[in-house]
């Protein structure tokens, strides 16, 4: 018999299914787990002594936005150093393909709102071509793609604020069918962002019928996460029920202004499952987000370029119209916009203001009081003064709701992050994305070890076999002979999330950390070490995982 290439010996094996850990060895041959045996019983060409550390499946992140950044940062250090070996991309309606020639500029404009897209060729049109571009580029982690409803709409009708014509609807359905045939795992929607927010339920039902024919999944950033959250979750469930598809309700914590706690959202999903609907959810554990302040404005304004937006906000009459639009909330925006609607400027803290760096670490409410101005006007003044380059931390989710979701058996763990540049390449002045560097170690540190919200084995299940099963990655997420060797070795006593500041609105902001975690010593992707004794090996063994 050919000896295994590598044996991880003398560890505490956490299989990913929620079973209690046990002492054992894990052997790897090629890209597969070759054997699992009692501690100190397996032999291989190379042996790593785990020394009692935990051996678990590589973490599967079911909700990320790495579609473009993985092409820019293929080493994926911010992900793989957390023990994450697979990213599900294309969430919230935002996938990088398909790309329509007639609306290419609008698509790139829309992406540029969220991420620096420079250095990427964007030389594909179809979803299949995009996946081939990913494969040619190589990556340290696996990518399991979704196709975004927003991408379909942009390819066919740009940022038009209207229903599609019959011809446009049919073309979106054809593009969706082609993406699913190319390997997309399902359809995602982002119904609080342009252009997804302009879609009717009927438009989504017709698309989800295509999803149903492929027996794929529907994932949804629902139409409202605040006052309308229960109706929005109900809409997602109703669409899935009508079309006979499985549904994943994305990052389902209620946001500021929601009438109920997380238990109410979860009750809807529980009820749907009792009625026979395959429905689950996910959530991350960070209560804040740091977008540009302008991203909290009503959706039609998000389509404007920077000069047009600044001109509009400088106009007194337009400001009055905008104040009314925020109050009416006709198209419910992303969760953090609730702070603007409810005037909670004390929970919006300036992170980056290039022209006024002295404002860093101060709340909009505090700045307004100093200036003798209304909070709303001060918020808009800052956008104008900084030429729409001012970034704020919006503290908009309750920790109790995060813990409720974390405990719930129907909720898996996600980051809602993306592959980021290496930590040493960031100066911390313009970005605050701790979930992209510390989500998974942070859960192990805070909610398993220090404040036990979850058993270790249950936390690992929510990070591995649960999301892998949900997205049809049935050869991953579990430590079993014959399955793919995506593996992480960690020391629970030493795991530390060094990227997350739990109380950003009181932090002095001398240094906003984008730092890699500690205590995750080995990470294998498809059998090859990417992290070895805490150091990146430079290996790029990740694969594009197409739906089968």
State the separation between the terminal residues, measured CA to CA: 31 Å
Rough outline:
globular
The proportion of residues in beta strands is 15-25%
Main beta sheet: strand number and arrangement?
Answer: 9 strands, mixed
CATH class call of the domain at 92-118 and 146-249 and 252-284? Alpha Beta
How many H/I helical runs?
19
CATH-defined fold name of the domain at 92-118 and 146-249 and 252-284: TIM Barrel
What is the secondary structure topology, with strand pairs?
Layout: E1 6-13, E2 22-29, E3 32-37, E4 46-49, E5 54-57, E6 59-61, H1 69-72, H2 77-80, E7 84-89, H3 104-112, H4 127-137, E8 142-145, E9 147-148, H5 149-157, H6 166-182, E10 186-190, H7 201-213, E11 217-221, H8 229-243, E12 246-249, H9 262-274, E13 279-283, E14 288-289, H10 299-302, H11 306-313, H12 316-328, H13 337-341, E15 348-352, H14 364-371, H15 375-385, E16 391-395, H16 399-407, E17 411-413, H17 435-450, H18 456-463, H19 465-470, E18 487-490, E19 520-525, E20 528-532, E21 535-536
Parallel strand pairs: 1-4, 1-5, 6-7, 7-8, 9-10, 10-11, 11-12, 12-13, 13-17
Antiparallel strand pairs: 1-2, 2-3, 5-18, 14-16, 15-16, 18-19, 19-20, 20-21
Describe this structure in words.
This protein is α/β, with parallel strands linked by helices and about 550 residues long. Among the domains are: about 90-120 and about 145-250 and about 250-285, TIM Barrel (Alpha-Beta Barrel); about 295-395, Dna Ligase, domain 1, CATH 3.30.1490. It has helices at about 70, 75-80, 105-110, 125-135, 150-155, 165-180, 200-215, 230-245, 260-275, 300, 305-315, 315-330, 335-340, 365-370, 375-385, 400-405, 435-450, 455-465, 465-470, and strands at about 5-15, 20-30, 30-35, 45-50, 55, 60, 85-90, 140-145, 145-150, 185-190, 215-220, 245-250, 280-285, 290, 350, 390-395, 410-415, 485-490, 520-525, 530, 535. Strands 1, 2, 3, 4, 5, 18, 19, 20 and 21 form a nine-stranded mixed sheet that branches. A six-stranded parallel sheet has the order 9-10-11-12-13-17. Strands 6-7-8 form a three-stranded parallel sheet. A hairpin with a 2-residue loop joins strand 2 (about 20-30) and strand 3 (about 30-35). The radius of gyration is 23 Å and the shape is globular. It starts with 5 loop residues before the first strand and ends in a 12-residue tail after the last strand.
